[in-house]
Write a structure and sequence with these properties.
Number of strands: 7
Strand order of the largest sheet: 2-3-1-4
Helix content: 40-55%
Number of domains: 3
Length: 288
Amino acid sequence: MTRPASSKSDRKAPSPGTSELSCEVCGQMPEPTKARLTLANIAVMLPIELLVHAAVVGMHLPYAAKVLVLTMTATILVIWVAEPSAARMLRAWLHAPALRHRRRLVTAPALWRARTVLRDKPGSLQKVTQALAGLDTNILSIHVHPVAGGVLDEFVLSAPGEVREAELLRALRGGGGIDPHVWPTTALAMADGQTGALSLAARIAASPDELPMAVAELLRARILPGPSAGGIEAPAAAGDGMVLKIPTAWDGPITFYRPGEPFTPAESARAHRLAELAEILAHRTAVH
């Protein structure tokens, strides 16, 4: 049910400094430290206690009545006034350690995986590198795949925490990149072969269409389109083992070429398993 406009305007907006700490599920703030909570309560309770004592002591009442009035009045004021006031007025100070920790996390370097098509000519990569450097972003790894009309470059980037996806996309376009894409990633992108294969399997599980690029990244190889796609076949001088074909059920075999470094049986097995995974997932998607 939609709330009336008046109820929205009556609500007090949370302070920008502490609203970022509210839990997304329950909306509650994190528990402040005991020391800060104690000092905040003392700062609010002490003036109330002094005023109550000064007022009651001046009354002409029996000693027992004064003690009872002091106890009840101070307790009520502390519960209904002091503690809520302390939590509200000193909120930024109470949660200052958590805010500092959150800001350190936000500004910590973040890892991104980026992909864009560049023209196959000298200086193209340098232009993209300079555009990313303008955001203090470092290129940790790069994979290059020849495609029609240029080369498809895949990067693993380390960027400052405050840099957002839109800024990276803008930098890639400004550096001459065509149809750029950016995804958050983890240190697994820089991991060893076995861990890398598992990471690529997860990538294919999310999108089976990623199979050609994922296998090319796994094998550090070039994708050779077939003649029907207007591509080139593997060079005739390629030695045994430098060309690998993996079958796919939807678009025929995919050919990979790595000059000067034959594919190992383990690499071939990993590539075929990834192809089987993509085929199974594509079949399940078609069935459902």
